[in-house]
Amino acid sequence: MMPIGPLMIEHRLIERMIDVMKEELFLIEKEKKVDPEFIEMAVDFIRTYADRCHHGKEEDILFRDLGVKKLTDEHRHTMEELVEEHKWGRKVTARLVEANTRYIHGNKEALSAIMDCIETLIEFYPKHIEKEDRHFFIPCMDYFTDAEKEAMLKEEWEFDKILIHEKYRNMVIAVEKILTAKKL
Ligand SMILES: [Fe+2]
Ligand SMILES: [Fe+2]
Fold this sequence. Notes:
Mean pLDDT: 97
Oligomer: single chain
Bound molecules: fe (ii) ion
Number of helices: 6
């Protein structure tokens, strides 16, 4: 398998989540209310899977290794754009978290901010994925030797292995902090 294989498989799961978010947005618009637990699940998916696990491998392995190659101007420009889009996606997700928190605390005006963020994300991800799948990943493989591609793929598996431990170590650190704050 090429190192873009796992990344393209991950794109398919992200698309499934985006489809669910589309349906959920339709329900929010219809019922004029939000299920905050759904938003929390969607945010966890976006932050842990789409951003940390998926964008993490793109940025820390594929883009890092492309960065030392003599890329065409077009490919370099696209790679920079993709990194900027990842950053922008993080900002929208942070806005969604903030709006959901306001909504949970009874601020009904946060509803429109939640809808706006979901709409932005469901527009953003398919475009971003299409750019990678159709215009970037495959031509970029030509910059690498077979050995380099194999090494990247191996590194991707290693990258994935640490993530579950990282997620739950961070969770323990967070609950420890909450407990300390409660005791003060
Ligand atoms: Fe990406
Ligand atoms: Fe991607």
